[in-house]
Amino acid sequence: MTQLSNEELASIAHDYYLSKLNIADISQKYNLSRYLITKALDDAEERGIVKISIQQHTKRNEELERQMQNRFHLKEVFILENLPTKNQDSEAIVNFAAKQIQNYAQTAKNIGMTWGTLMLDVINEFTDEDRDDLTFVQLLGQTLNSKKRKTSLVQEASNKFNSRSISLPAPLYALNSDFIHALEKEPFYHELHSYYKNLDLIFSGIGTFQSIQVDQFLMKNYAPTLFKGIDPKQIAGLIFGRPYDIEGNFYQEVGKHVCGINLDEIMQTPTRFVIVKNRFKTDALLGALRTGVITHLVTNSAIAEQVLEKSK
Questions:
Q1: How far apart are CA 111 and CA 124, in angstroms?
Q2: What CATH class is the domain 1-51?
Q3: Which intervals hold domain Sugar-binding (predicted)?
Q4: pTM, two decimal places
Q5: Cα–Cα nearest to 78, from 245, 298, 240, 265
Q6: Domain boundaries, the chain
């Protein structure tokens, strides 16, 4: 996977935010895919190279919320009105999602979460609390090229609440089924699954197959087995490490290789928050909604309108 230096990230951010070049122009300028340019902008924010502050009251689209809730049988939907720029949209969605998740956390004891830049952004927006009765639980193993942190994301979240955290020291995927079976016999894994069966709340983003394709190690060593016989063009997205098509059907064989929470444990969790801020994830969101995994959604009007149009 292409690793960009802070100087390169700063140059890309300068072109996008100050020079007002669009993603396509920047992609051509640096000979990088649009996905990598978008990821570079996210990385620039995460590393503190770019700092953005927006003071604007969040407006919601109640009509789109009703349509999305009825179409996909969701418990609750939050559709934010579009803001002038992609960056303003992203920050508004993350900030709003963090507030809603923290509201639901008031009555929760166990909260499961995945990993990634979006999750960190949400955690950073949490308001500090003292909750010694709360535990954050890591739901999945991690990819080999995940960014090194002094603390895991569940620890980052627990620090915000002065609470507990439970990590999963394992890879996201294991090709050898014996490895997973052996892992499941370990005492720490028994402890994890006791939490998985008693989760009150989960929050997560969704991925695309392109996020797999840019991971060279995963593509070389895992993808040939994981995605054998699967047409990548038919993969609408991934959620909780599991790929699915646009109709919401999971590719079950891949799920057998996932280290972490199983699908039944996910589905029995009463509140399953998903946050989507990128417009290129419309197909991924539509497929994810059709799986039935999502109960609560935070996104914006532009994404919701596209999903509703494609679902006709």
A1: 16
A2: mainly alpha
A3: 59-309
A4: 0.81
A5: 298
A6: 1-51, 54-310
Radius of gyration, alpha carbons of the chain: 19
Q: Please state the length of the chain.
A: 312
Reference 96, options 72, 135, 65, 50; nearest CA is: 65
Helix or strand run (H / E) with residue 159: helix 153-161
Q: How many helices (H) and strands (E) does the chain have?
A: 16, 9
Q: Do residues 46 and 120 touch, judged by C-beta distance below 8 A?
A: yes
Closest CA to 293 of 188, 163, 176, 205: 205
pLDDT digits (tens, 9 = 90+) for 51-62: 876 555 678 999
What six digits make up the tokens of 32? 């990088």
Question: Which pair of tokens denotes residue 279?
Answer: 């417009």
Give the E-state strand segments of 100-156 in sequence order.
110-113, 135-138
DSSP 203-255: EE--B-HHHHHT-HHHHHHTHHHHTTT--GGG--EEETTEEE-TTS-B-HHHH
Report CA-CA distances (Å) from 11 to 14, 16, 88, 91, 190. 5, 9, 20, 21, 47
| Helix 6-13 with 23-30: angle, nearest 10 deg | 140
Structure-block tokens of residue 85: 């720029």
pLDDT tens per residue across span 215-274: 889 999 999 999 999 999 999 999 999 999 999 999 999 999 999 999 999 999 999 999
